[in-house]
Design brief:
By secondary structure, the chain is α/β, with parallel strands linked by helices. The chain has ten helices and 16 strands. The strands form four sheets. A six-stranded parallel β-sheet has the order 1-4-3-2-5-8, with helices on both faces. A six-stranded antiparallel barrel has the order 11-12-15-14-13-16. Strands 6-7 form a two-stranded antiparallel sheet. The longest helix has 21 residues.
């Protein structure tokens, strides 16, 4: 798969999937798979157009917390078999393009698009006045095949990034994994902490997220931590560590049976299941007993999966 700037294609006739793709959830995946099917049918190059920033960061002045960073989105899309990802910055000039200008200048002029796949809620052009039906009309006008896919439902709910964010905030990681088609994870850098875990016999990796992720609700989770491509069982906490009166939210992972110094490494924290709420313990011994119980539950959950 190639990752290219939006101005990079003049040679190939292209099929393209359009959307924000935050999360690349199962609905997004079906949309991309349909685009790939079209590309193979007509001999087009399969591609996805992604903005380097969320459109709402320009339209509303502030983008939402993210479900995936760019690297995660690229990696997931690559596994689906896409030939190219085209990237571009969503800025004020881009925002002010009329819907027809977006089609003629970007899709046709820059990317030589012959087929487009979008969801029913797709919006484009100045003030988002363009919708999927308008895109179909422009498709007829300019000779572009336009497929509009209906949303995916699970248990009567539409799979959407908004719904996934809500489930993450509620700590419902099982629901999140059903909507994403995989477990939720964040990428972060291991940074120095107060080394409290070391002092009580349970060292933790203090994780600083690489982007402004949606963080699960405060509590302790059964997790997996990926270090240098190797996955380890872990028990992780999100919150203020009330026993030690932290003033900012911290993400800490106790990697079971792991003893390496991994400061400054980028690692991945995969959330499997919510275990319990965060608690303030009266003394260190009670905290240690609880951590041992958390570790036992993590190991048991692994056996049951």
């Amino acid at each position: 798969m190639e990752l290219l700037n939006v101005n990079s294609n003049k040679m190939f006739e292209t099929a393209i999937a359009l959307g924000n793709f935050d999360g690349v959830h199962i609905g997004h995946q079906e949309l991309i798979k349909e685009m790939i099917r079209l590309a193979k049918t007509y001999g087009y190059l399969s591609s996805v157009l992604m903005f380097d920033n969320h459109t709402k960061s320009i339209i509303d002045g502030k983008g939402p917390s993210l479900i995936t960073c760019k690297k995660q989105r690229y990696d997931i899309i690559q596994t689906l078999g896409v030939n190219r990802i085209y990237t571009m910055e969503f800025d004020e000039l881009m925002m002010k393009l009329s819907p027809e200008e977006f089609v003629t200048k970007i899709l046709i002029g820059n990317l030589n698009v012959k087929a487009v796949v979008v969801g029913t809620d797709y919006r484009f052009g100045y003030k988002a006045v363009g919708d999927a039906q308008m895109l179909k009309k422009f498709g007829n006008k300019y000779g572009i095949k336009v497929n509009v896919l209906e949303p995916i439902y699970i248990d009567g709910e539409i799979v959407s990034s908004t719904r996934i964010r809500k489930s993450i905030l509620n700590g419902d990681m099982k629901q999140v994994s059903r909507f994403l088609g995989r477990n939720y994870s964040i990428l972060g850098k291991v940074v120095p902490g107060k080394r409290i875990g070391n002092k009580i016999g349970f060292p933790t990796a203090n994780i600083e997220p690489l982007v402004h992720y949606v963080l699960p609700k405060n509590g302790v989770y059964s997790t997996e931590t990926v270090v240098d491509g190797i996955k380890y069982l872990s028990a992780s906490s999100v919150g203020y560590n009330p026993t030690f009166r932290e003033e900012v939210i911290k993400i800490e992972s106790h990697i079971i049976g792991f003893a390496r110094n991994i400061y400054d490494l980028n690692i991945e924290l995969i959330f499997i299941e919510y275990l319990r709420e965060e608690k303030k313990f009266e003394n260190i011994e009670l905290l240690k007993r609880q951590i041992l119980d958390d570790i036992k539950r993590v190991k048991k959950n692994k056996l049951l999966r």
